[in-house]
Amino acid sequence: MPITSKVVLWNGRENFPESHTRIPDSRLQWEFLFWGMREAVLHFIWQGHKFPLSDLVSTLGLTIKVINTGKLNSFSGPDFLFAKVCIDEQEWVGHVELHVKASDWYIHQHHKDAAYDNVILHVVWEADAIIYRKDGSSIPTLALNQFILQNELDKFQNVFYAKKNRSLNCEGSIGSIGSEILNPWKDHLFQNRLNQKARLMKEWLQGTSQDWEQVFFMILLKSFGLNINGAAFLGLGEAIPFKAVRKNAGDPFLLESIFFGMAGMLNKVDVSDTYYLELREAYNFLKVKFNLRDELFQKPEYFSLRPHNFPTIRLSQIANLYHRHSALFALVIEATSLVSLRSLLKAQAGRYWDTHFVFGKSTAPSPKKMSCHFTDLIILNSVLPIRHSYELHKGKSDINRLTSWAQEIKAENNKIVRLFQTHGVPATDAHGSQALLELYHRYCAKNKCLQCAVGKHLLYGK
N or C: the chain end with fewer CB closer than 10 Å? Predict the structure, then answer.
């Protein structure tokens, strides 16, 4: 839609307020071609009041005074909710949407979304279009490129974008953030990570007829699969009816046959290994008995894994774990200490695996026990989330106990934790490493610096 002459002439208005320092057009072009205009910058400007709140004029000549910029919306819908703005001396309360270009409104399909019907002000950097409501009236548009001080843009750039190819936007500054800012933020991140997993398990619960044992079986399998086989093992947990686990918990061999068979690991016809053939025979019987379907999910991988993490070893350990404790979920919920959880969850693969990592290839004898480190990972990634989810379900969440247990576990050692350590933010325990994982995936990787306590402190000093 073409822009009106009033908007076209905006940059050349003679009555542009003298009190506002305007960035030269040549400087603007160079600046934003160099580091790229993002909506994050607009959020910084709007949320931090880095523009004059009064004596503003819309692209169509309406006077604007911002009384309250509103509440940042972290979910779908307009960017800021319940803002209060005076437009042509009429006070409005409603939502504000931010875009780099006004035409992004149509590109993002907001004109078709009822959630945007209550937008009272469209805040943009470049006014390249007029935006209309469904009733044909135009939404007042404020073009911020006319009112921003260059030093405010420089501040944002220097904190987050001064160096290209940063691994973290704030990597030059985050190490200077004090514990009074970081510690409460880490607590929030840790709890938020648990809350996300609790929401996921609530969905699983609805799909399993409220069977908590099945849900725990699913998250336990996912945790045993780690990063490489987590998705495949989760698919296995979804595909195996838990009644088959309950019915065969008395015999770890039968559990192994179900797990290996469902994982597509008993399909080879050229293997002469006796144990393999016995497992396949048992599985063929159990497959018919429990109506098992083994073609519905991805198969586990061996590539790049250490032998002790091979799916054969991990699935055998789970089989023996459920052989020892058929009602494992109930025992996990009743545990009162980290020591008791560690004792409860330690398992060893079956005897065949003392001399094997894969079927048919013998190795030197070596019992395949779960290490202390791996057991702690299982507690961190399956036990703490299921306890949190179950406690929320019962209305009696004990986040302090879960936090305390996480603080007793050693920090995880992965590339994200090492990245933060490189920039001066080490994790001293698993509570800290889980918080950093949440920080990176939820904020850093999505450039949500203005929703992060670190980013807010660096930019706003609060």
Answer: C
Q: How far apart are CA 20 and CA 262, in angstroms?
A: 69
Whether 447 is covered by a domain: the verdict is no
| 184: in domain | no
Q: DSSP letters of 329-388?
A: HHHHHH--SHHHHHHHH--B--GGGGGEEETTEE-S----BPPHHHHHHHIIIIIHHHHH
- Quick one: 144 and 231 in the same domain? no
Inter-residue contact 347 to 318 (CB < 8 Å): yes
Last residue of one domain, picked from the residues 333, 353, 370: 370
Please enumerate in sequence order all residues whose Cβ is within 8 A of that of 63, keeping only pairs 6 or more positions apart, or say none.
55, 56, 57, 86, 87, 88, 89
Query: How many separate domains does the chain show?
Result: 2
Burial of 62 (0-12, 13-18, 19+ CB in 10 A): middle
Angle (CA) 284 220 336, round 5°: 135
Which residues lie across from 65 on neighbouring strands? 86
Task: Give residue 391's Cα distance to chain centre.
Answer: 22
Token representation of residue 442: 């939820």
| Residue pair 192/257 in contact by the 8 Å Cβ criterion | no
CB 199 within 8 A of CB 388: no
99 with 220, same domain? Answer: no
Residue 297 has pLDDT above 80, yes or no: no
What element of type H or E holds 39? helix 39-47
| Residue among 368, 404, 41 nearest 224 (CA) | 368
Specify whether the CB–CB gap between 224 and 318 falls below 8 A. Answer: yes
Domain of 274 in residue numbering reads as: 207-370
Residues 26 and 141 in one domain: yes
On whether residue 171 sits in a domain, the answer given is: no
Separation of CA 38 from chain center: 21
Mapped onto helix, strand or coil, the DSSP state of residue 424 is: coil
Looking at the DSSP bridge assignments, the partners of residue 63 are 57
Q: What is the pLDDT of residues 103-142, one digit of tens each?
A: 999 999 999 998 999 999 999 988 999 999 888 889 999 9
* CA distance readout (Å), 39 to 122, 414, 443, 448: 13, 31, 15, 10
Tokens of 378: 């299982």
Mean pLDDT of the chain: 87
Question: Are residues 360 and 258 located together in one domain of the fold?
Answer: yes
Same domain membership, residue 153 and residue 238: no
Query: How far is it between the farthest Cα atoms of the chain?
Result: 92
**Token output for 90:** 């009429």
CB within 8 Å of 320: residues ≥ 6 apart: 252, 255, 347, 348, 349, 350
pTM comes to 0.76
Domain boundary among 160, 176, 196: 160
pLDDT at 50 over 90: no
Q: Is 360 helix (H, G, I), strand (E, B) or coil?
A: coil
